[in-house]
């Protein structure tokens, strides 16, 4: 995700200094015009705005607060924009340390997967101070077609968790419905075409139904990453006193997929769970 997002910033004329554990990604960005840094601290020392995009809460804490992390090289007034999808409580913890160093932070997770990261049409959900948001909104707009301030720090990741709950439940319901149709003797393609223009139609349906029917589970967003997001949603629900029964049910389906070797597939492979139960498939 980070690499295509960085490429869009370069195309828009921004100067980038980059660092990553994946050397190939750094090399590709350097070839595209970025400057190479040896550490996150070195990136921060060269930057007024630092963007982090890593898998989960522990990785953000290591990248920002750890040895040779962002705060080691940060100058007062620097703005950290963490675009990772993490636990909102962790966002607040990192922000507290960032502010102690005289810097500012936004949490700004994204939705849309790698395809929308490539074409710069991500949905970006932001938490933090409005005055800080306004300073970097134009930068974020290069990477996303929708950039929304949702509230104080942590609100971006809370909104992203809500997004992931809705996406997961939609995909699960879609898989369940197509399998029902197949078992009842109706072609899944006919069901999809008949209902996609009505109330049940959605971006999720249009993106995932063809993948299910083609058996194409090449990842746009992997099962193991969605498991991470639902884990954060369930943990946050426990922390704030919100019961998430649908989320928990879909999590168990995804855990089955992980246990049966499908965790690196696209989350549209949730249909495999229903196909297994019904001893059928929805391929066209």
In brief:
This protein is mainly alpha-helical and 284 residues long. The chain has helices at residues 2-11, 23-31, 40-45, 57-65, 70-73, 88-100, 113-119, 130-143, 155-183, 188-195, 203-214, 223-240, 245-259, 271-278; strands spanning 17-18, 35-36, 49-52, 79-82, 104-107, 110-111, 122-127, 144-151. It contains 14 helices and eight strands.
Annotation keywords:
284 residues, mainly alpha, three-stranded parallel sheet, three-stranded mixed sheet, 8 strands, 57% helix, elongated
Describe this entry's structure for a reader.
The protein is mainly alpha-helical and 284 residues long. The protein is built from 14 helices and 8 strands. The chain has helices spanning 2-11, 23-31, 40-45, 57-65, 70-73, 88-100, 113-119, 130-143, 155-183, 188-195, 203-214, 223-240, 245-259, 271-278, and strands at residues 17-18, 35-36, 49-52, 79-82, 104-107, 110-111, 122-127, 144-151. The strands form 3 sheets. It has a 3-stranded parallel β-sheet, with helices on both faces. The longest helix has 29 residues, at 155-183.
